[in-house]
Every structure is written in structure tokens, then in C-alpha cells.
Amino acid sequence: MLRPIVVGLDGSRESLAAADWAAREALLRGLPLRLVHAWEGLPSDAADLPELDAPRHWARRILRAAMDRIDEKYPQVSLSGDQIARPAADALVTAGAESELLVLGSRAFSGIGGFMAGSVASATVAHAVRPVVLVRAGRTAEDEHLPDAEGRTSAVTAYRPVVVGLDPAHSCEELLAFAFESAALHAAPLRVLYAWQLPFMPVAAEAKARRTLRETATRRLDRVLGPWREKYPAVELHPLAEEGRPALRLLDITKDAGLLVVGRRIRPAVLGTHTGPVAHAVVHHARCPVAVVPHE
Questions:
Q1: In the chain, N or C terminus with fewer CB closer than 10 Å?
Q2: pLDDT tens digit string along 118-140?
Q3: Whole-prediction pTM
């Protein structure tokens, strides 16, 4: 049975953009699409209270309107929808565990959007066991493609690059699998960034140390990517071993990208959950969709 792509809805512009992005991805991957709206409501013994009529109507309307929208724009998609009476983050983590991808709306620090784009999305990303893709409001099909020869937006030109950030010192199999598969599906180039930093040292020693660290970083990156070059020979690969802070370097090389892929290490329960500083930074500041891939 095929795993669906699951979208979390809250009626915001961000979540509608996420649904559109997910529908296009479902068509490309040949997967079903499931729209989920979580509304905790009140206990069943209060089900007849008239004051619940309005929020209950709004909850049904959010799901129905989104399904009608997808049906009209992407009629080829195999579509289903569910309203779940649970806290949003819990419902999405559960639904995401059974999905190929979980897609949510996302906003920048300075933006204003629905709850799904803020605390719920953050909590969901921190607990999800499958990849989560976060999409900005207003993201269109044309934004995923390069401009045409005259510089105009287009939905038929080549896809923009996929970018993935990694640290060869840690396991990155899941991360690279997702990035290479995404690049292959979109026939897009793949940029793989390993950002390294020069430790504090006397100024006189910096030039030699920088040269040594750059050469070491390049070798480590090439060693990690070797098997993936063989597995995905058709993917146009651009390894980048660059000096700088990972989040800042990723944001810089992602300005013209179609998708940014970052990892989130799964920590033991006793240590709690977190997204990590790099994932946290790019989720809030990258303009393109960001895929957060959990890994050991």
C-alpha cells in the first residue's frame, strides 16, 4: 500500500500553499494525497451545546474548501480528507508517521499566519518520525522552476536546484537519500553543502590551517558522496565544502533553490526533542520549501 502525502490544514494562507505544493508533489511521485484538519473541540457530553455550532461549522468548512480547491486545480490527484478530534500537533505527528511526507504551512519570524505555521508546526517537526516539508504562503508552481529565456516566470522550464546541508561526521544516509531522490524526481541539480569553520588560533597560523581544513573537508565530502554518485548517475551533483556557519551558508546558496533539505537528529526520549540550531534557523528564514528529515 502506498504511503500518502499528508497535509495539515488550519485555513491559513500558509496551509493552503502547503496543500498546493503537496498536490504537485503527489502527482510527481504517483502518491495519494490526504488532507488533515485537527480540531480538539470539547468533550462529547458537551456536543449539543449551541455555542459549538460555529466552530464546528468552521472546522468542516476548512477541510471542505481545501478539498474542493485541490479537486479543481489538480483533478488527477487521488484525494482524501479527515477531521481529527485531537490536539493539532499530536494528530499531525500520528498522521505523519503513516505518510511518505508530511507537509505544513510555514511563516517567517516577522510574518503573521495561522497557528499551523507557528507553534504547532514547530512541535510537529520536533516529534515527527518521517520527513516534514514546510511551505511559505504564496508559493506557486512557477516558483519551483527557473525563469524562461526572457526572465519570466514559468511552470514548464527546468526545476530549480535542490540544496542539502550535511555534516560528514554524523550519519546522513536518510538525509542524502531524501535529497538525491527529490533531485532525481524533479530532474534538478543537487547542491550538497558541508560548511566548516576555522577554530580560534593565532593569525599567523590561519592561512595554513584554512588550506588544510578546506582540503580535508573536500575529501570527506567526496568520500561520503561517492556511493550516491553511483546510485544516482543522472543527478547533476555540485559538492560544496565551504567555510562559514552552516545556517548562513545554506541560506546564501538557497536563494535560487526550489527545495532545501536539512536533518534533525532523533534524540533519546530522556533528552527531549529539538529541531537543532541549523534546522530552526533555515525553517524560519529560507524562502523556498524546507524539508526536515529525522535521522539517527
A1: N
A2: 678 888 999 999 999 999 999 99
A3: 0.91
